Amino acid sequence: MSQLETAMAMLIKTFDTYAGKDGKKESLSKSEVKTMLEKELPGLLKAAKNQDEVDKLLKGLDFNGDSEVDFSEFVVLVAALTCAAHGRCSKKN
């Protein structure tokens, strides 16, 4: 597999590892997202200045308002964190 195909497979595997522990396998509950972030991105939570900001981030991910993060919403999270962490966010003037 190419590097991009490997990255895509890892996104799916990571999502599937954490989804479904609280019920639905096609989405992550708030607690599943928190567990995933703690295990997969521990530096993110440690760097957060307060828990309210983390909660706000998680709430903002739930585009359809169902109190869960589906795979599409998860991919947006990963992309946003990647852009922010590596200074690749586009700047509109």
Automatic annotation (TrEMBL):
Alphabetized Gene3D superfamilies for the sequence: EF-hand (1.10.238.10)
GO MF: calcium ion binding; calcium-dependent protein binding; transition metal ion binding
Protein name per Swiss-Prot or TrEMBL: EF-hand domain-containing protein
UniProt cross-references to InterPro entries, sorted A to Z: EF-hand-dom_pair, EF_hand_dom, S-100_dom, S100/CaBP7/8-like_CS, S100_Ca-bd_sub
GO biological process, alphabetically ordered: endothelial cell migration
Domain EF-hand: 49-84
GO CC, alphabetical: cytoplasm; extracellular exosome
Swiss-Prot/TrEMBL keywords: Calcium, Metal-binding, Repeat
